[in-house]
């Protein structure tokens, strides 16, 4: 099915580029399994063999893990509609191996290749594993497949015996290399499952050796320490119990971890990860092990703890640890469908959790995740739970305001009757506008989905919480179109939400016309489903046309595109080759808009020739129309960009433009709006994103707390025409005054010092490191000041990055802070990842 997305305009002339993660937790994970993986896992479960543990970058067995987050409004690649049946547990970031920049190679611990492991056995292998980094061992998930003999049972037995020896004296940290041994065993089970012929069989002897080591660890007390040092091991140990398929043996340990959790854990990201490891691995994937299911049904203490956890910790749902609570609901509802005995135990507890989490309250996400799992895994009890036909039930509660508008059904959360009618009128007008632009001959034969539902949520938070369960869209974006025009029984859906600052768009629905353009394009211009439609590089048209339609129909200036036109970044022949894989948001949207507008204005015959081929499904022929132009239009396009940015492409009336200057918690705003054609701008209205407003032309505003806010300017001319433009500002408290670090290397931090002027372009990282002497009890790393968005990552073992970290701070903007307690002596690694271009950031370290 087709999913198309609309990115946000977060700042005048600036388009955000990256998904936003939460401070500690990544995304809700769900998707259809790859065919081979799903079949293999199903066969294994039927045969009663051990399941394959998930690699570091994957979700549960048989699941991949695309994102459903609460942050981004950017481009997301097209994908199939998400089947609720395959919505899985939520994982914490378990970063894969990440290499250091070349200039840092001198600090590497040792070589890390499959050959390094293959050349060793017995004590030599054990010593090498312990002296490696955890990330080195993780790399064997992929590279180990090249030489599965690395994980033959004899080697695994040596490592399990060494693990038992270290477990007996476990002191609550990884000073002995114990985590590396656990990770090696974990990877071994994974490799052996997928390469049994090469790795060789695993017998009960290995199971006994591994459980003996785990029993020894759990017989001690330090595995219960609440610290990041212990948490980094504990999460791997819990994962290993699932990988070895011995979940039933450790029910007591899982219960204790859940029962002992409290909000003091939230200061320790690795402990949060350890708690979620219980929820994500054995309590999610373990249900394929019937011994585990029978044990839980016979002694429901852990199941009760799971329900108690979900209800007791509902306060997490409004913060970065929300996935702990939703995962508890996920696991409980899935267990209810594991067997008749399990259903008898879990059914009343599932109902109790559902009743504790009313929709449209801060607890709504717990209801949704629990209900979706129960509807799929325990659907025979849907009447008991009150969740039969769950999408319709959710829509009736969350989107109660409805209007049938010709072939369109508008389902809205907060639109009034007048706003519903205004949306209907806008869509009707867009139909006429569309046909005048593309000059089609009516619907393409055998393109179905002639009716469309528009789901309009009141805000981003409710869109993220509810839309996926109603419409099957992902939510790491600002709206999507879901349709398969080739399915006679299919339906088309446009999903979107309102923005409080948006005074320009109909009913404040900021992407109403963009998403509806995708629907029209799929019925009248582009034959086939989205996979067929994008079989050639035509994203310049797919997304650029939707942008063109939205801005042109609403008679609004695309300020992002105008800023890009002035930069002359791309040639037209380059934009013609746009795909989702080779283009970022800026190239897809503003430059797509510019290319489409230029072609419609200057070369309409070429557009008609292209569409004639697209409408009959000849995408190769349509691509040839513009690809064969080569660079012949590039010079004219470049000249057109100059005129466009100079005002030639501005909509008649006002265009709201402004500059921002941030000083600490204060933002100074300089209005520079443009009036095109007759009239003059006579009024300026500002919203600051914190509930306050101003009617001044060039106001200054001081925020009460640090953070990122959306400032929006609405400019109104003397005829009543308006334009609105938003921008994101990040304000901070004054930085702590610390001296500049004295090391000659600009990437070297020291104790209680700062490095100013840090910068990186979007998608890149600024790497730093610090040496911690013995006896260090706390390391605090902070970033303040500057512009842009920079996430802060820390790694105790290898170079920190967005995919390899043990602690992270990922708030919007460039103000971040991480505190690490009881770090061991040695080099520690930091990075600032550029979500968008950032500059002028100061990094401070305090020990």
Please describe the topology of this protein.
Layout (H helix, E strand, L loop, with lengths): L1 E4 L22 E3 L4 H13 L19 E2 L18 E4 L23 H5 L3 H10 L2 H5 L1 H4 L9 H16 L9 H17 L1 H4 L4 H16 L8 H16 L7 H10 L8 H12 L1 H4 L4 H9 L2 H12 L9 H15 L3 H16 L8 H14 L4 H4 L4 H9 L2 E5 L2 E5 L4 H22 L13 E6 L2 H12 L8 E4 L8 E6 L14 H13 L5 H4 L5 H15 L5 H9 L4 H4 L9 H4 L1 H13 L1 H11 L4 H9 L6 H15 L4 E3 L2 E6 L2 E6 L2 E3 L4 E7 L5 E2 L5 E3 L4 E11 L4 E10 L21 E8 L4 E8 L5 E7 L5 E6 L11 E3 L6 E6 L4 E9 L3 E9 L1
Parallel strand pairs: 6-7, 7-9
Antiparallel strand pairs: 1-8, 2-3, 2-4, 5-6, 8-9, 10-13, 11-12, 12-16, 14-15, 14-17, 17-18, 19-26, 20-25, 21-24, 21-26, 22-23, 22-25
In short:
This protein is of the alpha+beta class and 847 residues long.
Keyword list:
Immunoglobulin-like, 847 residues, disordered N terminus, four-stranded antiparallel sheet, 32 helices, globular, alpha+beta, Glutaredoxin, six-stranded mixed sheet
Structural write-up:
With 847 residues, the protein is α+β, with helices and mostly antiparallel strands. The protein contains 32 helices and 26 strands. Among the domains are: 137 residues; 249 residues, Glutaredoxin (3-Layer(aba) Sandwich), CATH 3.40.30; 79 residues, Immunoglobulins (Immunoglobulin-like); 94 residues, Jelly Rolls (Sandwich). Helix 6 packs parallel to helix 9, helix 25 crosses helix 29 and helix 26 packs across helix 29.
SS strand fraction: 15-25%
CATH superfamily of the domain at 399-647: Collagenase ColT, N-terminal domain
As residue ranges, the low-confidence spans are 1-72, 74-80, 82-89, 92-109
Strand line-up in the sheet with most strands: 1-8-9-7-6-5
Second CATH tier, the architecture of the domain at 399-647: 3-Layer(aba) Sandwich
Gyration radius, rounded: 28 Å
């Amino acid at each position: 099915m087709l999913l198309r997305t609309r990115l946000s305009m977060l700042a005048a002339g600036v388009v955000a580029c990256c998904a936003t993660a939460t401070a500690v937790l990544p995304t809700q994970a769900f998707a259809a399994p790859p065919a081979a993986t799903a079949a293999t896992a199903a066969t294994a479960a039927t045969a009663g063999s051990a399941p394959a543990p998930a690699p570091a970058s994957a979700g549960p067995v048989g699941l991949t893990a695309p994102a459903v987050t609460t942050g981004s409004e950017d481009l997301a690649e097209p994908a199939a509609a998400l089947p609720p049946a395959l919505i899985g547990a939520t994982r914490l970031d378990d970063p894969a191996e990440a290499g250091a920049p070349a200039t840092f190679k001198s600090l590497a611990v040792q070589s890390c290749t499959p050959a390094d492991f293959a050349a060793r056995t017995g004590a030599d292998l054990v010593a090498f594993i312990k002296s490696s980094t955890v990330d080195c061992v993780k790399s064997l998930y992929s590279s180990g497949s090249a030489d599965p003999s690395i994980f033959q049972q004899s080697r695994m037995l040596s490592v399990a015996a060494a693990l038992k020896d270290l477990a007996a004296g476990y002191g609550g940290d990884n000073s002995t290399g114990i985590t590396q041994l656990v990770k090696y065993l974990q990877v071994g089970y994974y490799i052996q499952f997928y390469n049994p012929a090469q790795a060789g069989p695993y017998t009960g002897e290995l199971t006994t050796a591994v459980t003996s080591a785990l029993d020894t660890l759990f017989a001690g007390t330090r595995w219960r320490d609440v610290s990041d040092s212990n948490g980094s091991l504990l999460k791997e140990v819990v994962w290993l119990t699932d990988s070895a398929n011995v979940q039933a043996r450790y029910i007591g340990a899982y219960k204790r971890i859940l029962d002992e959790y409290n909000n003091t854990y939230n200061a320790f990201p690795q402990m949060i990860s350890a708690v979620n490891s219980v929820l994500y691995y054995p309590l999610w994937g373990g249900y394929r092990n019937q011994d585990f299911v029978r044990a839980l049904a016979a002694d429901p203490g852990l199941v009760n703890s799971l329900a108690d956890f979900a209800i007791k910790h509902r306060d997490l749902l409004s913060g970065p640890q929300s996935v702990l609570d939703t995962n508890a609901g996920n696991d409980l509802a899935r267990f209810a469908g594991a067997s008749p005995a399990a259903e008898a135990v879990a059914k009343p507890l599932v109902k109790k959790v559902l009743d504790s989490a009313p929709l449209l309250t801060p607890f709504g996400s717990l209801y949704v995740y629990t209900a979706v799992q129960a509807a799929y895994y325990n659907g025979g009890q849907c009447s008991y739970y009150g969740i039969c036909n769950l999408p319709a039930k959710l829509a009736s509660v969350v989107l109660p305001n409805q209007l049938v508008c010709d072939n369109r059904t508008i389902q809205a959360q907060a639109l009034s009757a007048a706003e519903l009618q205004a949306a209907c009128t806008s869509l009707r007008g867009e139909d006429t506008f569309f046909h005048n632009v593309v000059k089609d001959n009516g619907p393409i034969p055998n393109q179905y989905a002639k009716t469309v539902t528009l789901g309009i949520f009141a805000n981003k938070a409710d869109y993220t919480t509810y839309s996926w369960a109603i419409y099957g869209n992902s939510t790491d974006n600002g709206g999507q179109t879901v349709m398969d025009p080739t399915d006679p029984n299919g339906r088309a859906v446009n999903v979107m939400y309102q923005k409080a600052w948006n005074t320009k768009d109909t009913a404040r629905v900021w992407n109403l016309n963009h998403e509806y353009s995708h629907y029209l394009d799929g019925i009248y211009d582009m034959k086939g489903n989205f996979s067929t439609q994008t079989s050639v590089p035509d994203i310049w048209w797919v997304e650029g046309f939707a942008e063109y339609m939205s801005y042109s129909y609403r008679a609004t200036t695309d300020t992002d595109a105008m800023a890009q036109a002035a930069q002359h970044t791309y040639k037209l022949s380059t934009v013609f080759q746009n795909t989702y894989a080779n283009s970022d948001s800026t190239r897809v949207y503003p430059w797509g808009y510019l290319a489409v507008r230029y072609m419609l204005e200057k070369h309409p015959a070429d557009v008609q020739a292209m569409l004639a081929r697209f409408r009959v499904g000849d995408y190769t022929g349509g691509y040839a129309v513009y690809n064969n132009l080569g660079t012949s239009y590039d010079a004219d396009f470049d000249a057109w960009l100059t005129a466009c940015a100079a005002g030639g492409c501005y909509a008649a009336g006002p265009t709201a433009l402004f500059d921002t200057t941030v000083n600490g918690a204060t933002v100074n705003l300089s209005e520079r709006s443009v009036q095109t054609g007759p009239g003059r701008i006579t009024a300026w209205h500002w919203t600051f994103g914190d509930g306050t407003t101003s009617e001044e032309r060039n106001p200054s505003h001081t925020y009460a707390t640090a953070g990122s806010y959306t400032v929006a300017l609405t400019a109104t001319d003397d005829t009543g025409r308006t334009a609105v433009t938003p921008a994101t500002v990040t304000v901070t408290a004054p930085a702590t005054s610390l001296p500049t670090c004295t090391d000659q290397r600009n990437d070297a931090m020291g104790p209680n010092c700062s490095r100013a002027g840090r910068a990186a372009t979007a998608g890149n990282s600024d790497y730093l490191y610090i040496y911690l002497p013995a006896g260090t009890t706390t390391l605090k790393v902070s970033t303040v000041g500057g512009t842009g968005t920079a996430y802060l990552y820390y790694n105790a073992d290898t170079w920190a990055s967005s995919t390899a970290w043990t602690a992270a701070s990922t708030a919007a903007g460039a103000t971040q802070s991480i505190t690490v307690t009881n770090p061991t002596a040695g080099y520690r690694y930091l990075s600032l990842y550029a979500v968008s271009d950032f500059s002028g950031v100061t990094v401070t370290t305090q020990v």
